[in-house]
Amino acid sequence: MNVSEAPITLETLNTEEIMERIPTILYLSLVMIIGIPGNTLVILIYFGSLWKLRGAHWTFIRTITIVDFLICIIIIPFEFYQQTHQLTFYAESACKSFKLISVHLSVMASLLLVMMSANRLHRIWWPLKVPLSSRQALVCVIVLGILVTIVSWPEGLFSGINLKQRKNNITGYDCGVAVRYKRTTHPFAYSFVLLVGFILCVASLVTIYAIIWNKLRKRGNFRSTSSVHPQIDIPYESSGVQTVELEDGSSISNKTVSHKIKGNSAGSRKISLNRQRNTSRRNRGSIKVTKTAFVISIVFISSYLPYITVKMVAALLNGQYKSDSIIQGIIPILSRCFLLNNIINPIVYVFLDKTFLTQCKRILLCRAK
């Protein structure tokens, strides 16, 4: 052996692995740099100045924000560490824990989005029915969290230190499928179940918003053929007071309406105008909320399609596409495109919600001063 040649060690081979994964490392760094401040800002606004916004939709939005923030501060740094320790990952307990948390948060974010979209469908399809309250939505989130914990538990069981044989008979240590489960079909079956679950989430979102779009289109056609001053009926119970909750967090009480209706004809006309203004305000708020939920769902679908495609191709080709170095550098990025879903929501809120944008400017200007 030439004395000028450096001995090949595990650290040397790990450095070679890092050099091949520089695109993925840069991608994860960029996602982390954008995601942590963005989701921190959303938390400050929705749990601070906009805490007054009540209703199931805002409960789901706040929960999604917390999940996105946890992914940015826990899962993305873990992915970064794993990419830089492809052959020197020794802590099996940390591997199991982070893999379990990663699956738990990813599944939780997906199902929360489906639940929020289903709530939008309920509000659009049955506008006069009593909507889901904030407390009921919170109970749904807690139950969902328990179910997702049960579903994600096998990931922690099957994960562990995977041994990689390299040149010069050097053995590397990677966080992946544990050695004792590597020759069994259980990890593959579990990964297949998760993949089918994500596909079903995407299909559910497409179906829900197709129904919502069709319903809104029919409602628009109906309104265009109605009279110039349509009358909107507000449900009223003579034995009590009913409050209609608006999308922007405000409300209108039918007790006030009932007292005013008993007035003279001028008062009746005023009530009719007030009704129309309140209805118009509620409709504008509903459209804004639905548009925001729709864009968030489109981002989710777009970010998960590359992940689903990579997983399906890997299953069909048994990973043989990894022989090409260029493809090997692109595949890890495509399989982690779903992380974009956890950093893009603050940008969506800025462009679609003027109230959120105003609060962003206020907080940033205060920090600058």
How are the secondary structure elements laid out?
Elements: H1 10-20, H2 22-49, H3 56-84, H4 92-125, H5 134-158, E1 159-166, E2 170-177, H6 186-224, E3 243-245, E4 251-253, H7 254-261, H8 265-317, H9 325-334, H10 345-352, H11 354-368
Antiparallel strand pairs: 1-2, 3-4
Helix pairs in contact: 2-3, 2-9, 2-11, 3-4, 3-5, 4-5, 4-6, 4-8, 6-8, 8-10, 10-11
Concise summary:
The chain is mainly alpha-helical. Helix content is 70%, strand content 6%. A hairpin with a 5-residue loop joins strand 3 and strand 4.
Can you characterise this structure?
The protein has one domain: Rhopdopsin 7-helix transmembrane proteins (Up-down Bundle), CATH 1.20.1070. Mean pLDDT is 80; it is low at 227-246 and 248-262. The chain contains 11 helices and 4 strands, in the order αααααββαββααααα. It has 369 residues and is mainly alpha-helical. The protein starts with 9 loop residues before the first helix and ends with a helix. The strands form 2 sheets. The chain has a two-stranded antiparallel sheet with strand order 1-2. Strands 3-4 form a two-stranded antiparallel sheet.
